[in-house]
Amino acid sequence: MNKLMTLFLGAASIAALASCSSTKNTATISDLNGEWSIAAIDGKTVESPENQKNAFLGFDSTTGKVYGNASCNSITGGFDTKAEPGKIDLSRLGSTMMMCPDMTLETALLKALSQVKGYELTKNGDIALTNEKGKEIVLLRHREPAATADILKGEWKVTEINNEATDSLPGAPFIFAFNDNSFSCSTDCNNLMGEFTATANGLKFGNLASTRMACPDSKVEQAINAILPKVVSYGKLAGGGIGFYDAQNNLLLLLEQ
């Protein structure tokens, strides 16, 4: 009787372990919802190039929208929200086509995403994107939504304007100060001020004004005045700064604390 009970308990334990093992990696489409940092590609830890955006993917499980950034260009596309759990096809994602100083990470990421056919939950709560053979090719780690107005608050030095360093220009450093939905900026001549609206990735400046002092040289003031109406997005960069971008994803201003 004891042997029979031992065998029964042993079989039950094995069944329970098998059940646990078979379900620990099961994922549904809702598990993808939100934003995810690119933690690894083909098993290699990812580090975003300096002064480029942190690579990430975002999924909306309601609309089937995919968005993100490959460290240089923006990623966009969609997926089938009615697909079998654990199945997803990311082979048709698109991206903008801007050239950046370092395209190594972007090239590797876009190549990997084109092979994605499935996804799994890891024991740490990360998402493993897999190829058609079930091999992990991209590891995603959950993150808070990338950019909100809170990350802008405070004072920032303008270190680049249209990819040109500002540290040697007369009057440097030039300072942006953000507070709630208003900003001010000291330039080589007048002080600029106005309002801004920030969303997860979008940024828009409005109601721009400035002091009216006549100056012999207002190169920086004129450049920033021309740039602000063109800004449509921003992002936290790998080096810790903030980049302002136009509709073509060109870096217009680089701010650092």
Explain what this protein looks like in three dimensions.
This protein has 257 residues and is of the alpha+beta class. The protein folds into 2 domains: 27-143, Lipocalin, CATH 2.40.128; 149-256, Lipocalin (Beta Barrel), CATH 2.40.128.270. Helix content is 16%, strand content 37%. It has 3 helices and 18 strands. The chain has helices at 2-23, 104-113, 219-227; strands at 34-41, 44-45, 56-60, 65-69, 74-78, 94-95, 118-121, 127-130, 136-143, 154-161, 164-165, 174-179, 182-186, 191-198, 203-210, 233-236, 242-245, 251-256. The strands form 2 sheets. Strands 1, 2, 3, 4, 5, 6, 7, 8 and 9 form a 9-stranded antiparallel β-sheet that branches. Strands 10, 11, 12, 13, 14, 15, 16, 17 and 18 form a 9-stranded antiparallel β-sheet that branches. Strand 1 and strand 2 form a beta hairpin. The chain is elongated and about 65 Å long. It starts with a helix and ends with a strand. Residues 3-24 have low confidence and may be disordered.
